[in-house]
Amino acid sequence: MPEPAPPKPSHAARMKSRGGFARVWNALGYTVDGLRAAWTHEHAFRQELLACAPFALAAWTLPHLSLWVRALLFGSLLLILVVELLNSSIEANTDHITLERHPLAKRAKDMGSAAVFLAIANAAVLWACCLWSAYGDALLRRLS
Question: Does 84 qualify as catalytic in the annotation?
Answer without folding.
Answer: yes
